[in-house]
TrEMBL record, chains A, B:
<dbReference type="Pfam" id="PF01370">
    <property type="entry name" value="Epimerase"/>
</dbReference>
<protein>
    <submittedName>
        <fullName>SDR family oxidoreductase</fullName>
    </submittedName>
</protein>
<dbReference type="InterPro" id="IPR001509">
    <property type="entry name" value="Epimerase_deHydtase"/>
</dbReference>
<dbReference type="InterPro" id="IPR036291">
    <property type="entry name" value="NAD(P)-bd_dom_sf"/>
</dbReference>
<comment type="pathway">
    <text>Bacterial outer membrane biogenesis; LPS O-antigen biosynthesis.</text>
</comment>
<comment type="similarity">
    <text>Belongs to the NAD(P)-dependent epimerase/dehydratase family.</text>
</comment>
<feature type="domain" description="NAD-dependent epimerase/dehydratase">
    <location>
        <begin position="4"/>
        <end position="238"/>
    </location>
</feature>
Amino acid sequence: MQRILITGAHGFIGKHLAKHLASLGHHVSGLGHGIWPSSEASMWGVADWTNGDVHTANLRALQARNEPDLVFHLAGGSTVGAAIANPREDFFRTVASTVELLEWMRQDLPRARLIAVSSAAIYGAGTLGPISECAAGVPYSPYGHHKRMMEMLCRSYGDSYGLDFRVARLFSVYGPELKKQLLWDMCTRLAAGESPLTLGGTGQEIRDWTHIRDVVAALALIAQNDAPVQADQTFNIGTGTGVPVHEIAQLLIDAWYGNNSGRSGPTPLRFSGQSRAGDPFSLVADPQRLMALGHAWQTPLATGISGYVDWFRHATAR
Amino acid sequence: MQRILITGAHGFIGKHLAKHLASLGHHVSGLGHGIWPSSEASMWGVADWTNGDVHTANLRALQARNEPDLVFHLAGGSTVGAAIANPREDFFRTVASTVELLEWMRQDLPRARLIAVSSAAIYGAGTLGPISECAAGVPYSPYGHHKRMMEMLCRSYGDSYGLDFRVARLFSVYGPELKKQLLWDMCTRLAAGESPLTLGGTGQEIRDWTHIRDVVAALALIAQNDAPVQADQTFNIGTGTGVPVHEIAQLLIDAWYGNNSGRSGPTPLRFSGQSRAGDPFSLVADPQRLMALGHAWQTPLATGISGYVDWFRHATAR
C-alpha cells in the first residue's frame, strides 16, 4: 500500500486514476479545484480531498495527514482554447503550480517519486507517423509550450536535486466523464437533433485515441517501474495507431444509432475543411518504451466509443 | 528617438545599456529592484526609474508616462549559485516575470519589439568549440533551465500572438560595475593581500569573454535590425574566441601589479582542481549571426581587464 497524492484529482483523468489506484489498495489524497463532497470523492477513490491551489500551505497540510511516497501531477490548464484565450492563466496553472509542487517535494519529500503528466501537444505540428519521445518539435499553442516548460522544471529538479521523476505524455484520451472535445461535442449535437453534422477540419486529421481505463493502467505501471529509463525519463502513452477523425466520428454516429434503435437513422457527417491555425495534422505515439514495460492496450476503439455513448446518455438523462 | 523600457535596468548590464541608449538620444525608462535616486539613475541614462516587480500595475503606470516602442528584458535571477540555493525564487524572477511582461505587451503594446536577454547557460555542459544558436543542450543548473523557459515563453507569444521579439544570449560579460564572479573575487582577494591566490577548477575551463561596452552595442544593434532573422530569432553575443581561465586570471594579476608599480610583485596563481558539479568546461559562441549584422568587437581583453582593475580600485577606494 502506497500513500499517493494526485494533483488535479477532480479532473477527467484524475478521477479515473484515483479510482484505479484505490482499487489496487493504495491510499489516495487529492488536491485541486472543485467542490467535491467526501461521499462523492470517496466513490472515486479519493480518501482526502483538498479544494485549492497547488501551494505550500495546502501541500503541507495534506502531508501532515498522509505523507505521500508517490505524486501524480495532473493539475494544470486543460484546453488549448483556454490557453490561447488567456495564456497567463494557463502559465500559472501549468508551470507555476509545478514549481510550487517541486519545491515542496525538494524540501519535504526528497525520496518521493513524481509522475508528471504532460501532453503530445509538446510535439506540435509537422510530424508524420509515430513520434518517439526524443523527437524535437515546436509545441502547439501556449498550452503545449507550458506543458514543455513543466517537463523542463522536472528535469531541472532531477539534475540539480536528484528528484525521482517520470514524464508521461498523453495523446487523445477519451472515455466516461470527458465533457469536452470532439466526442462530447458530437454527442451534444446529436442529442439536440442536429443533422447533418458538420465538423471542423477535413476529417483526415490523425490522432492516437486511447481509452481512459488503459491510460490510467499505463500511468500506474510507469509509477511502479524501478528499472532505469532513458535520460529524459519520458514515456509516450499512446497505442502507435493513428485513426483519422472521420473514422472515429463515424464510429460515434454508428454507436449513437446502434445503441438506440428507436432513432430515425444515421445523421450525415460533413467537414468544413477549415482547421484551427497550427492544429497538428497528425499526433501518433511511438509507444516502444511503454510496451517494453509490458503494457497492453485492452479497449478496442469501437467498444470504447460505444461505452462513451452509453455514458453520455446516462449522464445527460433527465 | 525611441521610447525604450529596460527591465532590470539597475543591474550591471542594464545600467550600461541604459547609458548607451541614452547617449544615442533615446528616452529610457527602467523597472526593477533597487533604490536609485533620480540624480544617480539619470547619470546612467535612466530618465524614469520604478523600483518594483515586473508586474502589470508597474508596467501600466510607466506606460502612462512614456509608452515604449522597444523593451529590453534583463530582469531575472542573476547568479547560478543563488538559483541552485533557491530555485523557486529564481523561477519567479526569471520566468514568471517574463509572462507578466509578455501579457502586458500582448494586451497593451502589440506593436512594440522585445529583446529578451538570455544566457549561454542554456547550452549547458558538453560543448566543445563554438556553439551555434541552434545547438541543443541540457541547460546548466536551474538558472539555465529558467533562462531557456524565458526564451520559450517569448517564442510562444511570437507563434500565437505575433510578438516581435529577439533573444540575445550573453556569454561571459565583464566590465566596470560587475561586482561578482571571477574578476571581482580575484580583485577583492588581491586587495586583501591574499597570496598565493588559489582559484577553483583547473584553470583550463574556457569562456568567451566579452566587454560590457561591446555587449550593449551588440544589443542595440540587434534591436535596430529589421531584416528577417532565423526562425528562432536568437543571437549569440560572443566573440567566437575561447580563453582559458588561467589566462584571464594571469592577465588580471599582471594588470593589478602593472597598474600599481608600488606593489611588492606578482602573486602566484594556483588552481584547486575542483570544479563545481555540472559547470560547463567550455562555453564559446559561434557569433556568425551577430557578425552578419556588422557588429565589431572593439575592446581587446588586456585593455578591458586593465580598465576593470582601474575601476575596482576607484570603486573600492576609501
